[in-house]
Amino acid sequence: PEPCLSPEAPKAEPGPAPGPTRWGICSAGAISHDFVVALKTLPPTEHTVVAVAARDLGRAQAFARRFGLPRAYGSYEELAEDPDLDVVYVGVVNPAHLPTGLLFLRRGRAVLMEKPMALGAHEVTELVATARERGVFLMEGFWTRFFPAWRRLRALAAGGALGTPLLLRGELGFALAEVPRLREPGLGGGALLDLGGYGLQMALALLGGGGPPATLRAHGVLHPTGTD
């Protein structure tokens, strides 16, 4: 097929080449581990991880040793005060996204928030409002948005090659029935806040011109704990 135009790249102002983006990692759990593994596949001249923080200093130190990071902190507040950070990746548990995100945004730190951004629209609104008030970057970590296949699909849809998309059917399944965070309300559990967002963000991006839906209905099955 004929190549499709990709979204226009931002126009950078001429000037000296910038140094690497300096990352701080908030939490030393499995998702933060995976993020740093991925980040380290990129050239160190572009991205470098300079610090990690966890509620337990020992875990932060073990994480730092594993990845060769220069600094480890036993509190998120210490990471927020580190002067050598450009952006913080927040990989804490879902219920902590709002307070942790606000901590860094109020310190003027750019934030890449692991999905979901927060537990509900009111929490997301507070995060976005704080980022706008402080004039700092905030983004939800949907890595699929940056896949070449996704960019190609968006370009095809925007160029009319698919006609007018009316229906998206998606299936995504993992064996997570025994994972506590999926079924416990106190951990921000449920399929929608865990993996369901992938299909939902695709539908929002590809259907209806990319705007918010006029109406929304949800059908599902609830776990005995009350999560979806």
How would you describe this structure in keywords?
6 strands, 36% helix, EC 1.3.1.20
The CATH superfamily title of the largest domain:
NAD(P)-binding Rossmann-like Domain
The helix/strand series, from N terminus to C terminus, equals EHEHEHEHEHEHHH
Oligomer: single chain
Low-confidence stretches: 1-5
State the domain count: 2
State the end-to-end distance. 41 Å
User: Any idea of the CATH topology of the largest domain?
Assistant: Rossmann fold
Average pLDDT: 89
**Widest sheet: strand ordering:** 3-2-1-4-5-6
InterPro entries: Gfo/Idh/MocA-like_OxRdtase_N, Gfo/Idh/MocA_domain, GFO_IDH_MocA-like_dom, NAD(P)-bd_dom_sf
Keywords: Oxidoreductase
Protein name: Trans-1,2-dihydrobenzene-1,2-diol dehydrogenase
GO biological process, one term: D-xylose catabolic process
Overview of this structure, please?
The protein has 228 residues and is of the alpha/beta class. The protein has two domains: 21-141, Rossmann fold (3-Layer(aba) Sandwich), CATH 3.40.50; 145-158 and 169-208, no CATH class. 36% of the residues lie in helices and 12% in strands. It is built from eight helices and six strands, in the order βαβαβαβαβαβααα. The termini are far apart. One of its GO terms (molecular function) is trans-1,2-dihydrobenzene-1,2-diol dehydrogenase activity. Keywords: Oxidoreductase. Residues 22-142 form the Gfo/Idh/MocA-like oxidoreductase N-terminal domain. Residues 150-222 form the GFO/IDH/MocA-like oxidoreductase domain.
